[in-house]
Input
Amino acid sequence: MNGGRKKAICFGLGPIGCSIAKLALMRKDRIEVVGAIDIDPNIVGKDLASVIGIDGPTGVIVKSDLRGVTHDADIVLHATGSFLSSTRSDLIEFCKKGLDVVSTTEELAFPWYRHADYAAEIDTLAKQNGVTILAVGVNPGFVLDFIPIALSGVCSSVKKVKGERVLDSLTRRLPFQRKTGLGLTVDEFEKGVREGRLGHVGLEESIAMVASALNCHIDKVEQIVSPKISQGMTLSGSHSTIEKGKVLGIIQTARGLFDQKEVISYRMEMYAGAENPHDSITIVGEPEITLCIPNGTPGDLATASLVVNSIERVVEACPGLVSTKDLRPASSVLIP
Output
């Protein structure tokens, strides 16, 4: 690992990946972007500047795979999918090429609870090849795991952890709105939930991470995903209306049970036009502490920032698969 600027490959150039690449390019004193990868044939062969919408050129040409770009790189900024089943092969390749990784894959944030076999495989490969792998994001990775873990540090004891996120999906990117089922019928929504296409990925990982940090073994996590139904709503900034009876978005709850008792409970409301958006965490203990973030944490920008701001703590860490509870907090840069 070089001691100066870290040489990064931006792997995945969807909306989040483009935000990551744009921020990485802004950090010229600490990061050098040496590669960009995406499978979209419409952008392969283009200069990265034209893909992410900045003045260019950058001299970084988007390629369809890692061939020819890994020999001069330290770390991969990985943003392609939520599920380990679809990103596992990428992670294995990164390990074999000796590249540290910061990923946005939600199931990778704390895979030991639901995907112990994948976690063991990736951790072993990472250690064998001397690399560190971390998954971060707003949630999982910050609001419903890092923050409650940090807050619990001033408590002599904790009885329960509660969290709530309310966000207006109209402020988020189009793929996010689709993931909440905006505009679908109830039947279409329920089918999407059954098939795993709709709903937030990561609540189970957040609960398992918090429980692990608090020395508690969760017996199981229960989740419920329900539609938020429109009463006939005109979308902000457009003339379209979500018809009465169709879906505005999702209300998703999850609770972690220990010895048949609810010890962690989370609720997420993600729908068009949600009022009073916020993030809140309550630690029921001694003392009881509540933290509320008015308007909530801006998901897309915050995710990109967490990825880029985690580079230094990943390259300094011991090899292996780690989570946000294992490393020092990510920090930004002060620009007076």
Summary: Residues 281 and 321 are 27 Å apart (CA to CA). Residues 84-96 form the longest helix (13 residues). Residues 146-296 form a domain with the Dihydrodipicolinate Reductase; domain 2 fold (CATH 3.30.360). The chain has two domains: 6-137+301-322, 146-296.
